[in-house]
Amino acid sequence: MPLYCSILGAKNPNILGLGRTSDNYTLSQLKALGSIHHNTHPTHIALVSKFDQSFSSPLMEEDQTKMFGLVTDPDECCKDLDVAIRAVHMACFLCHKLLDNFNSKSITNNHKSPIKVAGWSIKAIVSWILFECLGGENVSIVIDEDVQTLSNTNASELLEAVIKTVNECLAEAPRFGVEEPKSAIGTSEVLEIISRCCSVGGPSGRFWALSPLDGTMGSACGDQYAVALSLIEDGEVVLGVLGCPYYPMRKDWFSYHRSYLRIISKLTSPTSETWNEGCVIYAKRGSGKAWIQPLLHVNKKFVWPNHAKQVSISSIDNPALATFCQPIVAANSSHSFAEGLAHSVGLSNQPLRVYSMMKYAAIACGDAEVFMKFARAGYKEKIWDHAAGAIIIQEAGGMVTDARGHPLDFSKGLYLERLDRGIVACAGATLHEKIIDAVDASWVSSCL
Q: Is 213 annotated as a binding residue?
């Protein structure tokens, strides 16, 4: 099957949509333009430097392309990041399609539950895009479940639903700058695509880590969840993309359940272009920048920079003024220790309790300042649950370490091995130091 991807070309402004609103390019066309080379490490590509700072009334695509110029810095984006961003946008589109209006109480345990269908379909979609756009020889993916679960005879209904969903989603690929397959993908092809996701990570080489539906409980009850994709090279996270389909674009909306926000959105004029919720956040190692883009509106096409805006951490370094993020699920985290620690450092604001890696997004965007997670004995943190969020916070100006202040180690395989006590993420070094000192002071008296 030929490789397809719409990549931004540094030498041809039309590729950025400056001459037309949308183009889909085949690999051979891209080679002719000199922008990429098959089976080689991708060269850097141009991005856009001027971003729409007002999200209350985004521009139409045609108007948007007229106001942006090119960046001279070649490190603003690379082919890997471009493809990963499009893959996560497609995954979020798939999530909206399946999860917006289902009744979790009646069908969560069903073999064809939208949650299960979405999880497997995202694995297939992301794997397909990475392999088709980057070349299979350079792509290795870590996921949380083996394809044997899906190919099991008991999962025939689930597999059928996944195949249907994948094909429906790939039919929309041109909206995201990726050319759709020439024919529908069948059972054996879907299983083969997912079976490629068999990396076990490690200290050397290059692999992707995918969390297709982080915060499953959130998605089951109509609340927050995330799609996370990161690239790890020789044990170091080099880029991260985090899709948050329901991320509220106003800080005061964080305290409301998603179902309430859904009612608010229905009161908005159906012709409104207001960006009320949903985003993709991304960062590349060493750039010192993190960016946020809105999810695509219905029938819109992905055009760089898709109203992107640089985000940065909060300037608050006083624990008494900070907002504390806390996991909702208590099974794999000690809420009592985290809450006691928050009290000991003077955190007085109402904690932000949300599902998924959206907590990382909240800190990177300046909507919260502290995230602490202290796992119960025997629980191991998975690399795909933290890699994308960690690099996004770090490039936005924050810090993410274990609870002793040591960097997180993504080189030990599927898990964050030798993780000391827990994970602490903060908006800035000063606040981080205060929290780490408080952990040291409180740990001896804890029962963890």
A: yes
